[in-house]
Amino acid sequence: MLQLLNEEIRPSADLRNHYPEISRECRENRTAVIITVNGRGDTVSLGYQQYREMKSRLELLELLGEAEQDVRSGNIAPMEDTINELRRKLISGDLA
Question: pTM of the predicted model, to two decimals?
Fold first, then answer.
């Protein structure tokens, strides 16, 4: 299930002066902390697990977009042909 990120806006001085608190907020509460410089958004801090999950979702969306484009342009093959080609490559060791 898609979980929306909570967001918190903090000045860059907080990153320097309150890093442990910001880090804990990112990790434990799944909060994206937006760091501002001169009142404007500059950087976003996320917990590492959140970052990995977000990156995985984006990569999957890109793959799905490419697949959808292939279908629209008619660049498709029967599933049986694709599976047989994969088997052939696995057997021959030619996975490049």
Answer: 0.67
